[in-house]
């Protein structure tokens, strides 16, 4: 075989491998499915410092439960939505009802080293399925960052901050769970979807 033939064959294999890799990448990112339903938005972890919540983190008008926390903090849970990907996203607002600026307690991040290492968050939140006897913790991405609102360290007097937390989904027949956040009262919420 000549060197020229070998070089052409090698180039062809590289091009074929690159094309196959791109095709697999595009197919893997599709995810629209053939179920005829429009895709639902799901919240994801904020990049950067997390101080500017995305539009997905915005609250709805309805309040499912209000949970009182330390020093005049209140968490209003507006929705808990189950998506087709097997996740439950809890949306709400964190309010400062005191007359002074409050620093969020470190306990809200939970006590897992990997989550604490990624800064202030609501990573200590859990969902409790009492019928299924299971506790669901906030999901983490591949780098250990919790899939929740991050970067909130202080809340001014009267300020309202939109927040979200994403959990693995309990079984579809489970529609009511207890929501817990360290240092806050516990409350029952309904899962839609």
Automatic annotation (TrEMBL):
Keyword Signal: yes
Transmembrane segments: none
Keyword Signal belongs to the record: yes
Signal peptide positions on this chain: 1-20
Chain segments annotated as coiled-coil in the UniProt record: none
Record key words, sorted: Signal
Region Disordered, residue ranges: 31-62
Protein name: Secreted protein
Organism the protein comes from: Streptomyces hirsutus
